[in-house]
Design a protein that fits this description.
About 30% of the residues lie in helices and about 20% in strands. It is α/β, with parallel strands linked by helices. It is elongated, with a radius of gyration of 21 Å.
């Protein structure tokens, strides 16, 4: 059964034993990438508060006895604030419920999971965190892009593009090299790409934008730091999407290429290194 956030109050009956909270990382949205531990937590749940990017299409089956509460946010539209979400989690637990907070990706990778854990601690509610498959790694992999590759890059950096990066951050990213993965970066794409070039990154450095990873409509747009803003506009790119910046984008494939073709491509790149 489902309810909208803020309705169906359970009250604050302190005579009932306090429940517990489990933060579950749901992965990038596919039910298949939900961990076994996450699925077991949902099966035991009395209340599930879920995000739009979490795997929620099968929640009636995954959490058969739970009240389902949609607290999802979309870009520029937050019908339930973070503080209200934390209050809902705590109030349901204090009323004795076994609460699951289901989040997309991993709760501790730009998921505000730590804020929800602190809210539970402040209220004296026991809380457990079950990690999830982060979209920072999984979505590029779905597009055939490894974040590291021997002889090409041995490091990657994950950054949030929710707000524009500072000049200092852009300078350090450009100087660090390796692969850069940007989550929530569609709105700040121009400032990120232009900023990296301004601080010395090669304008021809490859960039990939993977939209709606692991969904039937997953799409990848590839360009360079110099061209990707125009490429993205032409492709009408929109959120949710993951940006990958770096030489590893040259290894991207659509999943149908034969192994011999991929090997030949990798050997050619190694020869150029």
């Amino acid at each position: 059964m489902s309810e909208q956030a803020g309705t169906g109050s359970l009250g604050d009956d302190r005579s009932r034993p306090v429940g517990e909270v489990t933060l579950v990382g749901g992965g990038p949205g596919s039910d298949d990438l939900l961990t076994v531990a996450g699925a077991r937590a949902l099966e035991r749940a009395d209340v599930v508060l879920f995000d739009r990017l979490a795997p929620h299409g099968s929640l009636d089956t995954l959490a058969p006895r739970a009240t389902l509460v949609n607290v999802g946010k979309t870009p520029g539209h937050h019908p339930v604030s973070q503080k209200e979400i934390e209050a809902l989690i705590v109030s349901h637990a204090l009323a004795g419920a076994n609460v699951v907070r289901l989040k997309g990706g991993d709760p501790y990778v730009f998921g505000r999971g730590s804020e929800e854990v602190l809210a539970c601690h402040a209220a004296g509610v026991a809380v457990t965190v079950i990690p999830g498959v982060t979209s920072a790694i999984a979505v590029p992999a779905a597009a055939g892009i490894p974040l590291t590759h021997r002889g090409m890059t041995r490091l990657f950096t994950v950054v949030s593009g929710h707000a524009p990066l500072t000049d200092s951050e852009l300078e350090h990213l450009a100087g660090l090299g390796g692969t850069i993965v940007v989550l929530m970066g569609i709105g700040t794409l121009p400032s990120i790409t232009q900023g990296l070039v301004r601080f010395g990154a090669d304008p021809q450095l490859p960039v990939a934008i993977i939209e709606r990873g692991f969904s039937p409509t997953q799409t990848t747009t590839v360009g360079t730091l110099a061209s990707i803003v125009f490429d993205a506009a032409a492709a009408q790119v929109s959120s949710p999407a993951v940006l990958v910046i770096g030489e590893v984008v040259r290894l991207a494939y659509d999943g149908d290429a034969e192994a011999s073709v991929l090997l030949a491509r990798a050997e050619a790149l190694a020869d150029l290194a």
